Amino acid sequence: MNSARTEEGGRSGRVFLVGAGPGDPDLLTVKAARLIGSAGLVVYDRLVSPEIMALIPPEAERVYAGKALGHHHLVQDEINDLLVRLARTGRDVVRLKGGDSFVFGRGSEEALHLAMNGIAFEVVPGISAAAGCSSYAGIPLTHRGLATGVQFVPGHLREGHRLDLNWDKLADPDTTLVIYMGLQSLPETTAELVAAGLPAETPAAAIENGTTPRQRRVLGTLADLAERTRAAGLQAPTLIVIGRVVALADRLDWFAPPMAEVPTP
Fold it and tell me: How many CB atoms lie within 10 A of CB 229?
């Protein structure tokens, strides 16, 4: 790929699309930790944990590009253009995203925009929220005899729209269903899955701030998880895990930060 040039004629900087993982800085890859620790310019998202933000050098320039439901600091097209503009100043850019940037992180959209504009980039994978948060909650995503596969789906609602998912395909008792950004739509999700044939007693969990000292989890079933999370006051970011593997959570619970377990209502 031919790198773009700055207005002064020099080579543009590179953009590193870095997955910051689900929150625990010990889960960063060696490459991610090295890039973060030596960064001079960081464009970061809302879901990057405070513990990982603390690894950025104090003198580094920080640019916030976070998005929360219904409140976008920058829309995605603006973020894409921002990365190009910053790279064309000749500086390297660390684009820091929670989890893995290619798993519901829109990292591929940013990479395509960089490629179309001749900006050199590298992708640094991160541990996904699904893998990290479920493990820290004592939930294996697959287990012999309980789950032979995993499905990842987004659960966020656009204003005025219903979730547009293939409920019949998702209501598979032999797979684990992981729902990103699914807290607000949880009542609809659980009702649709039961209507599609998944038993109401299927184990289910909600994991808030997974892998961090602020982690909390709520365990229940399809029938009552929405009410349990509401009663517990869980907030985003919360990952939803549905499937028979959730029944192992108590026996495999190895990570116990203060207030990690929400009392049963």
Answer: 25
